[in-house]
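FORM 12-B: Structure-to-Sequence Request
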């Protein structure tokens, strides 16, 4: 499943297919000691070091021509502390494995993103999130972290131990060290009822504050070239469990969401003029449905259509205005956009470079199917997002640099000062970090 399997000649490619790298060597450590040793050896050889998860970032955040660390042997649960309500897990564990293992133990994360292929360290280091009124990103649920720093030493941090590292390293961009274990807050497993229903675009924007306030987890997809959206509300439920029937689930999630959608993308690529018509048909194909299940079966769904994505966090109060500007831009530009725009929210958190750091946020994500030119659309969208002091997702396409980030993150200097302390020789540097954090 992971796209990080090396291609020919030792070339590494990401899931979206838009980033490639040729590391000098690859290391798959089986223990924290082996990982620390690999970092020390790289330093002795004058090589940079990067850890890579499943390659689900669309930026070159994990690319290196030095030593590529693959964490697939650093997986599994280290410890479950039911009294404290925590689970400690090895950094290379895929979210899917964590979710299934927790469910077996009668436990769950409070909130999660909409896919679960990523490793826990890759997802948290880039600020992966779902949608939530009170519950934040996956990184916001971290209670403790262990990382190997540039000199090969192992550093643990939490609110009490090395708190300044904890504030930054939960979304550390791979710049402060290589995460080896994460302690998450968990809770007894619960049921969520999902209510999915189409709703006119103008109505969603007019009622957005209400829809956000009345639901624990609200999100919607808008189909460009149409006035239609599909909304999803997830709320805790007393039960009973009422999953989507298997055959219906296959038709709706696999056939419609992945199969027909893939064909629509192929047609759209071959004949862009058909896209507005396809969008209108797609937006009407989705019907309302309600189902109740355990959290990961409600929050996440398979994504088989490969795409490239840009996502920005804007202040939550700016979401309707930003979306109206996006709609006007698409209408006037003559662009043909075949992928829905995804809108989610997160409460303010206290992580230095989290996209929701210090402000209640709304996320707006634009996508293009893999292999189609996305630059014109993304450039025009980015112009709108940055006018609202948007903060781009660290793992998704953007063109911002350190100067811009210093303006939209009040604690940016705090992060770079910590990096100077933990990695003075820039052992974990790459081109992407040089751009976003400065040299």
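FORM 12-B RESPONSE
SEQUENCE OUT:
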């Amino acid at each position: 499943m992971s796209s990080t399997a090396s291609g020919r000649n030792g070339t590494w490619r990401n899931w979206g297919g838009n980033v490639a790298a040729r590391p000098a060597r690859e290391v798959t450590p089986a223990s924290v000691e082996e990982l620390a040793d690999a970092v020390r050896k790289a330093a002795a050889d004058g090589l940079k070091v990067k850890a890579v998860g499943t390659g689900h970032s669309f930026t070159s955040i994990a690319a290196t021509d030095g030593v590529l660390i693959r964490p697939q042997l650093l997986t599994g649960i280290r410890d479950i502390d039911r009294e404290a309500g925590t689970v400690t897990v090895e950094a290379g564990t895929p979210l899917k494995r964590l979710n299934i293992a927790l469910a077996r133990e009668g436990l769950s994360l409070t909130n999660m993103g909409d896919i679960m292929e990523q490793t826990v360290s890759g997802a948290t280091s880039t600020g992966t999130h779902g949608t939530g009124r009170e519950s934040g990103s996956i990184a916001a649920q971290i209670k403790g972290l262990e990382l190997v720093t540039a000199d090969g030493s192992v550093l643990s941090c939490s609110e009490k131990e090395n708190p300044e590292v904890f504030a930054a390293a939960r979304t550390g961009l791979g710049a402060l060290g290589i995460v080896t274990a994460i302690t998450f807050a968990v809770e007894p497993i619960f049921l969520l009822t999902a209510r999915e229903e189409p709703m006119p675009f103008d109505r969603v924007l007019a009622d957005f504050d209400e829809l956000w306030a009345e639901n624990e987890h609200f999100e919607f997809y808008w189909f460009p070239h149409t006035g239609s959206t599909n909304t999803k509300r997830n709320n805790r439920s007393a039960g009973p469990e009422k999953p989507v029937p298997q055959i219906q689930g296959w038709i709706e999630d696999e056939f419609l969401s992945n199969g027909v959608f893939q064909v629509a993308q192929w047609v759209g690529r071959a004949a862009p003029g058909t896209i507005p018509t396809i969008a209108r048909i797609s937006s009407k194909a989705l019907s309302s449905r309600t189902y109740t299940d355990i959290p990961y079966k409600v929050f996440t769904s398979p994504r088989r259509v490969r795409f490239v994505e840009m996502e920005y966090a804007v202040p939550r109060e700016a979401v309707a205005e930003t979306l109206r500007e996006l709609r006007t831009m698409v209408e006037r530009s003559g662009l043909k956009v075949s992928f829905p725009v995804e809108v989610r929210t997160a409460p303010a958190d206290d992580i230095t470079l989290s996209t929701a750091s210090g402000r209640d946020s709304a996320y707006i994500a634009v996508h293009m199917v893999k292999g189609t030119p996305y630059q014109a659309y993304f450039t025009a969208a980015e112009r709108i997002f940055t006018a609202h002091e948007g903060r781009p997702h660290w793992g998704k396409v953007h063109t911002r640099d350190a100067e811009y980030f210093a303006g939209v993150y009040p604690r940016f200097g705090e992060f770079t000062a910590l990096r100077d302390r933990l990695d003075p020789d820039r052992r974990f540097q790459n081109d992407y970090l040089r751009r976003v954090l400065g040299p």
